[in-house]
Amino acid sequence: MGITIQNIADLAKVSKGTVSRVINGAPGVGAETRKRILKLIEELDYQPNASAQGLASRRSYNIGVIIPHTGSYSMSTTYWPTLLTAITEKAASQDYNVLLSTARSEEDVDSAYRSILKGKRVDGLIVGAEQFGEKQLAKLLLKDFPFVMVGKSTAFSHYYVDVDNVGGARRMTEYLISLGHRKITMLAGPEILPSVQSRVRGFQEAMTKAQLDPGRVIYTTYQAEDAEKTALQILREDPPTALFVAAADLVLGALEAARKLKIRIPEQLALVTFDDHPFYPYLSPSITAVKQPIHELGRAAVEMLFALMAKKPVEKKEILPVEIIVRGSSQPGDAMK
């Protein structure tokens, strides 16, 4: 079932007859009301003719993947390419293709949805939950697309797969505490993102349980220069004995800040991160990390989506465990004294 005249009428808060008059160019509708209805029709790509509706009901054998970031940023990370590889492989095993849509800019995330929702080019969607809001939800529900989120939305409940962000951050913080660290600071990503909020929560739970300061959290963007600037501020103004960098995107900035201040890792500062990376074992020192099962996450998202597309019963969420990988960048807090 696609978009109907009744859907348009409900959203515009008018009668079906008013919508019909606008579609047919009939008189009797005010200019502002007509403008509002036409805008909804365009945004939702409403197809009023029967042939178009019939075409939309056919299977395309495509699934869409919406990444709520620019292509240049997404493909420069380890997370999104790994996730996309797993999704593509799993979809191909079921004779499905994958259409990828990314945002034109970080400020225009909605563009990623507009480009892929034109017509009926996909049978279902996998959506990055970061920056996913009620506007995008309304579009997907009205388009009648089965969809699965990667990551949890804080605004509403829907089918999603995710990793144990809270538990992973809690365990890593407990690990640092077990080494003797008492001044631990978390360098976190943008505060608005649900994954960041979850990792901060895990950190604060462990700190509170150990009767340590849970407020030692500093937020920054995922840009390397911002990460470096924020890390420099932390290490100059109130230097911790351990720095928990809560995303792989922030690690290089933190390492560069420590290098500029001539702070030795791990002798003067233990450094750990949430997110592993293939080059971490080869750095000097190698980086202790929370490892996410990204490949398994992608496969789980496709399996959940195919179940929804087949109208099979499925659990609304699947949370995958993470792993702590201990390497050379962390050591007992006693060495800092």
Condensed summary:
This protein is of the alpha/beta class. The protein has helices spanning 5-12, 16-23, 31-43, 50-56, 71-74, 79-92, 111-116, 134-143, 165-178, 194-209, 224-237, 251-260, 294-309, and strands at 62-70, 97-103, 124-128, 147-150, 160-163, 184-188, 217-219, 242-245, 270-274, 288-291, 317-320, 323-325. The chain has 13 helices and 12 strands.
In words, what does this structure look like?
It contains 13 helices and 12 strands. It has 337 residues and is of the alpha/beta class. The protein folds into 3 domains: 5-55, 434 Repressor (Amino-terminal Domain), CATH 1.10.260.40; 59-162 and 295-320, Response regulator (Rossmann fold, 3-Layer(aba) Sandwich); 165-292 and 324-336, Response regulator (Rossmann fold, 3-Layer(aba) Sandwich). Helix 9 runs parallel beside helix 10. The longest helix is centred in the middle third of the chain and has 16 residues, at 194-209.
Strand order of the largest sheet: 2-1-3-4-5-11
Which word captures the global form?
Answer: elongated
Work out the strand percent: 15-25%
- Our count of helices gives 13
What is the assembly state of the chains in this entry?
single chain
Helix/sheet category: alpha/beta
Mean pLDDT: 87
Q: Using the CA coordinates, give the radius of gyration.
A: 24 Å
Please outline the major beta sheet. 6 strands, parallel
Q: Regarding CATH, which class of the largest domain? A: Alpha Beta
Q: Could you name the ranges where pLDDT drops below 50 across 5 or more consecutive residues?
A: 50-57, 333-337
Number of domains: 3
Alpha carbon gap, first and last residue: 67 Å
Give me the CATH superfamily of the largest domain.
Response regulator
Instruction: Give me the CATH architecture of the largest domain, please.
Output: 3-Layer(aba) Sandwich
Number of strands: 12
